[in-house]
Amino acid sequence: MSAKILSGETVAEAVRARVRTDVEALNARGVTVGLATILVGDDPASHSYVRYKHKDADAVGMVSIDVKLDGNVTQAEVFAAVDDLNARPDVSGMIVQLPLPSHLDGEAAVERVLPTKDADGLHPFNLGRLILDRPAPLPATPSGIMTILDHYGIKVAGLTAVVVGRSFLVARPMAIMLGAKGVDATVIQAHSRTPDLAAVCRQADLLITAVGRARMFDASFVKPGAIVIDVGTNRTDDELVGDVAFDEVVEVAGAITPVPGGVGPMTRASLLTNTVGLAEAAAL
Ligand code: NDP
């Protein structure tokens, strides 16, 4: 039997509708809601991601501010661009599009963003608050995954979740969120040094793959009926594919996110949620 398809496009549209209403309410109180991006260099994938972020911001009625810097800029010039946006009252949230060119320190640039303007939820201060279970803008990709699960009524409590990957961008905060009190999954964090990864993954009621290897997770990694969330975005010659071998796993899993159209749109939707939340907090 084929798995239920968990459509990030559908859920993202619902999120955008909610954010649009919130933006209108803030505008009615005289509060501008603005999302700014800083993009350094000419990486085509990064340009495409940033274009979509502005399209989304426009769609929900946010002001969008697009800062593009030459690939040869210095770290000081990146900091100056961040400082400028930190100081602008029309910028509620901002994103430094990663990765930066290799001569620059992307994590330092993210840390330069005021935690109160951290649309990506990746500032160390906000990651610290996540660990402490205190309110904070949440890392966009794991937050988007929680929203998909919630939208489809998938109860995580009591499930064994295997998160494959341990990046600060996706997999570590994902594991923290799933294991939080009130969410109550039992979490296994796997990575490239995990022995017999397929056997570990087969324990999962909820399998989340954030690796970056095209179609690595075939049916032998999946417990029948499991919920499979595919974060991977891998560009092959002619298409965008996930970490999961969708065509065979869809026959084994109980539910699955497609690539494209699964986690990607939800990551962008979470940026909007964070930005409007930051605008609300700033207007208190
Ligand atoms: P990283 O490269 O930072 O992390 C990859 C992780 O995968 C590492 O922890 C690594 O383990 C692990 N890994 C690599 N090879 C294997 C293997 N053979 N077996 C088990 N684990 C392995 O990537 P990100 O977390 O930033 O991104 C992961 C994927 O998600 C990428 O394809 C990226 O493009 C995509 N992505 C998609 C988003 C979306 O919105 N859809 C958003 C962000 C990312 P180790 O630590 O041991 O090296």
Descriptors:
six-stranded parallel beta sheet; 284 residues; Rossmann fold; binds NADPH dihydro-nicotinamide-adenine-dinucleotide phosphate
Describe this structure in words.
The protein has 284 residues and is an alpha/beta fold. It is 41% helix and 15% strand. It is built from ten helices and eleven strands. Helix 6 (140-151) packs across helix 7 (171-179). It is globular and about 50 Å long. The N and C termini lie far apart (51 Å). Residues 141, 164-167, 169-171, 191-193, 197, 210-213, 231-234, 263-264, 267 line the site of NADPH dihydro-nicotinamide-adenine-dinucleotide phosphate (NDP).
Protein topology:
Blueprint: E1 4-5, H1 8-28, E2 34-40, H2 44-59, E3 63-69, H3 75-87, E4 93-96, H4 106-112, H5 124-131, H6 140-151, E5 160-164, H7 171-179, E6 186-190, H8 197-201, E7 206-209, E8 227-230, E9 234-235, E10 240-241, H9 246-249, E11 255-256, H10 263-283
Parallel strand pairs: 1-11, 2-3, 2-4, 5-6, 5-7, 7-8, 8-11
Antiparallel strand pairs: 9-10
Helix pairs in contact: 1-10, 2-10, 6-7, 6-10
The chain binds NADPH dihydro-nicotinamide-adenine-dinucleotide phosphate (NDP).
